Amino acid sequence: MKKYPWAKEALVMTVFVIFFALSFVFHRVFVATFPGIPSLVFSLFTLFFGFAIVWQHVNMFRRLDLFRQEFLTIISHSFRTPLTAIKWASARLSDPLTDTEKTEVRKQIEVADNRIIQIIEMLTHLSKIADDKYYAAEAVAFNEIIEPILAKFSQSIEKKKLALQLSIPSSLPLVVTDKMLMQFPIEIVLENAIKYTPEGGGIAVRVYKAKRSLVVAVQDSGMGLTKEEKEHLFTQFYRSPRARTHDTEGLGLGLHIAKRIVERGSGRIWVDSNGKDMGTVFYISLPTQ
Questions:
Q1: What's the pTM value of the predicted model, to 2 decimals?
Q2: pLDDT per residue over 108-127, tens digit each?
Q3: 3 state SS of 260
């Protein structure tokens, strides 16, 4: 399409021509079968219907173009920030530095490198959830999912001096899910809780049994959500103005991908908040065996 900018318009016109030809044939059959109905009325109807189909295709191509441009803009910006940090940090290494300064530069490179890996992993998840073959549901002990996640974020929680409350029963039913993919939604929810909770705040992780499901609830004492933010929170690329101010490097894809993964496994994810600065609770419900 990029090599041939006229390809989309040509495709739309081809659809219109094919439809017009079929309408003409159908019109001849219709007039021969029902000679009492004026052919002009039928011709106007088919013309209007054909125009509606073509207009729908044109709008679809426009939406795809806007989506592609928005996606490329966000992704290029997201990669540019850590790559620039690596470039400047690498340039500093050629200067005479003390051991302390070298350690600081290495940490900057490591942070930027981890950010690039995070972006790539998110894009990988985005491609996988569109393909059924990448979702392998099995009966899994939920502790095998939640414990590595808590260990992964333990340092981040400690660094911000957050109080962590855990309520995870020792005896839980098996959940039917993709063990590897399902880690992502829980990681995103917990990571957001850490990110948007001020230093010294609190986070609570609760796991409990429902009727035919297991529910994990992640509650924080952070910035909370307005009614408008809750309505658009799981929309692709959506980031509220407050979230963009707090974290300038976000993609607006994490919760959207999390929702797609959870729903792929017949689960459910939803959010509750009493408003701005009132904290947030994310719930993820997974089917049990």
A1: 0.64
A2: 888 788 778 777 776 776 66
A3: helix
Mean pLDDT score, 136-159: 91
Neighbours of 217 (CB within 10 A): 17
Sheet bearing 163-167, strands edge to edge: 163-167, 202-209, 213-220, 280-287, 268-272
**Structure-token match 């300038």, residue found:** 248
Report how far apart, in Å, the C-alpha atoms of 78 and of each of 33, 73, 115, 236 are: 62, 9, 9, 15
Surface-to-core class of residue 283, CB atoms within 10 Å of its CB (0-12 exposed, 13-18 middle, 19+ buried): middle
Residue 100 structure tokens: 């302390």
**How far is residue 122's CA from residue 110's CA, in Å, rounded to a whole number?**
18
Cα-Cα-Cα-Cα dihedral sign, residues 207, 187, 239, 260 = negative
How far, in Å, CA of 63 to CA of 181, rounded? 29
Q: Cβ(214)–Cβ(146) under 8 Å?
A: no
Measure the CA–CA gap between 158 and 134, rounded to whole angstroms. 35
For the chain, which residues make up each domain, given as ranges? 7-70, 83-132, 137-287
Q: How far is CA 67 from CA 73, 161, 190, in A?
A: 10, 40, 28
* Conformational region of residue 4, where left means phi above 0, alpha means psi within -120 to 50, and beta covers everything else: beta
CA-to-CA distance for 254 and 247, rounded, in angstroms?
Answer: 13
Name the residue among 269, 280, 102 with its Cα closest to residue 204: 280
Name the CATH topology of 137-287.
Heat Shock Protein 90 (3.30.565)
3-state secondary structure of 278: coil
Please tell me the predicted confidence (pLDDT) of residue 142: 93
Is the model's pLDDT at 132 over the cut of 80? no
